[in-house]
Amino acid sequence: MHAQSRYRAYLLRLWPMRSGQDLVWRASLESPLSGERWAFVGLDGLFAFLREQTGDADACLHGPTNAPPQAR
Predict the structure, then answer these.
(1) Who's near 41: CB < 8 A, 6+ residues apart?
(2) Whole-number Å distance between alpha carbons of 9 and 11
(3) What's the predicted TM-score (pTM) here?
(4) Can you list the positions of beta strands (E) in 1-72?
(5) What span, in angstroms and rounded, lies between the C-alpha atoms of 56 and 32?
(6) Which backbone phi and psi does 56 adopt, to 5 degrees?
(7) Is 25 in contact with 14 (CB distance < 8 Å)?
(8) Helix or strand holding residue 6 (H, E)
(9) What is the pLDDT of residues 12-61, one digit of tens each?
């Protein structure tokens, strides 16, 4: 697959909402190229979508890293 076809860009929106006593996060992604939008009722769904889009279902970074982006 050539590099341009693997490139992904999204506008990410995150906002907190109350669910009873809990605070839950909602998210949406929008493609600046196509205008297509996706909505997520939680972060798990957002992360699953991103893993699916990148073909990287098993990879996950936990916590912040000080490594430069190329080394991640």
Answers:
(1) 24, 26
(2) 7
(3) 0.67
(4) 11-19, 22-30, 37-40
(5) 22
(6) -125, 60
(7) yes
(8) helix 3-6
(9) 999 999 989 999 999 999 999 999 999 999 999 999 999 999 987 555 55
